[in-house]
């Protein structure tokens, strides 16, 4: 498994001529305050702008160096507002609608253009950019599909935006060069008293990263359990998580190694979990109900033992008393002797 290659490919995606621009809108009805709208714009997975129904003005992020993006989100606001109003007539309990539209360019060619809608988090309807027609993604969207397909002028503008305007915006967007940064964290989650899942968490903006490996006693550990990522984090960096199961014998021999073009970064595991607890303490950090159950059983067992000892001691006393009382004595004499023996046996020794 060439983990370093996957990591490097994602970091270099922008330099290879592939770019994406997405406008992610959400509209929801809030009791007492009407419609709330917000939109996030992402370029190559990096958030470059935010807009909401308060001012309907785009707030561009510092990472954006140059662009020709719209300064407001007013048009998107009314699109979502009209959609929410129309869909609510046919679908009860419509709480929110989501819209994802944009395009992907590859080697200066339009690879895909999309305009998809969801209702209450479920896929609802999508736009065919070529035919400029809507396609229902659920039975409840059929009526909306027929209605929206009748708005030919609006559909023309929707198609023009994702087919022509979106690619032009991509050509004009330039992000500031991110400072080379690689952060490593090594921690573990206990499996039981003898094993733990060791994780190597890497966040990097360095395009020269060549390899990421989890090591044991200085040698590369080969038996990987899971590899999560590479995933874009939204700020221009990429996240990769390697996980392996390790025995809890010598925690300090495990570590994470990242190899870049000009340096090697190594972080050893300090034996702690993500929240800073020592792993051996975490494995025995039982819930309160378990502790109370163990204490209760221990108290009951101790009480049973005490009762058993007392009963055994009483039996011995009775046997000793019976041996010392002659059969020829009267009942009164036996009783007096029995009391005398009891006092002798129970009287503490000087």
UniProtKB/TrEMBL annotation:
UniProt name for this protein: MHC class I-like antigen recognition-like domain-containing protein
One Pfam family hit: MHC_I
Gene Ontology terms describing biological process: immune response
Signal sequence region: 1-18
Domain MHC class I-like antigen recognition-like: start-end pairs: 83-172
Keywords tagged on the record: Glycoprotein, Membrane, Signal, Transmembrane, Transmembrane helix
Keyword Transmembrane (UniProt): yes
Protein's organism: Takifugu flavidus (sansaifugu)
GO cellular component terms, A-Z: external side of plasma membrane; extracellular space
Region described as Disordered: spans on this chain: 328-350
Lineage: Eukaryota, Metazoa, Chordata, Craniata, Vertebrata
SUPFAM superfamilies: MHC antigen-recognition domain
